[in-house]
Write a structure and sequence with these properties.
The protein is built from 9 helices and no strands. By secondary structure, it is an all-alpha fold. The protein has one domain. It is globular, with a radius of gyration of 19 Å. It starts with 11 loop residues before the first helix and ends with a helix.
Length: about 140
């Protein structure tokens, strides 16, 4: 029996991954992405299990938060946010055109969405796009 074989002598890498290996890989990527997201949220004093209570109820506000998170992630503001552990509200408002009050009120959602968008796997980003494309 080799390192890659199970007790039946089967190749363990094949039995772990299923028929084509894709499903388990996607699941592992998703779990890693969620762990990374939780870690980022903890840096800002947020918890994944409580974040649902703080997400905007209205679809248009969720879209604005996603827009802000996307702009944040694509600019130097993200580096500033990670360094200071604070959302650069005024600079983000200027860059995105979203009112300061909206950004302040939805700070947790913007941080959450940015963490999801920056974590990598397409399977996670899919959920963010689904929120963004909701019909009004």
């Amino acid at each position: 029996m080799t390192d890659t074989q199970n007790e039946k002598g089967e190749d363990a890498t094949w039995s772990m991954t299923g028929e084509d290996g894709r499903e388990t890989q996607i699941n592992l990527e998703f779990e890693e992405a969620m762990a990374e997201t939780e870690s980022k949220l903890r840096m800002f004093g947020l918890e994944l299990k409580r974040i649902a209570e703080r997400l905007p109820k209205h679809a248009d506000t969720r879209r604005l938060c996603l827009k802000a998170a996307r702009i944040l992630g694509e600019s130097s503001l993200r580096d500033e946010m990670m360094r200071t552990r604070k959302l650069p509200v005024k600079a983000l408002s200027i860059l995105s055109g979203i009112p300061i009050k909206t950004i302040e009120k939805n700070r947790a959602a913007i941080v959450f969405y940015e963490a999801i968008l920056s974590c990598g796997p397409e399977s996670v980003r899919y959920y963010a796009r689904a929120f963004e494309e909701e019909k009004k």
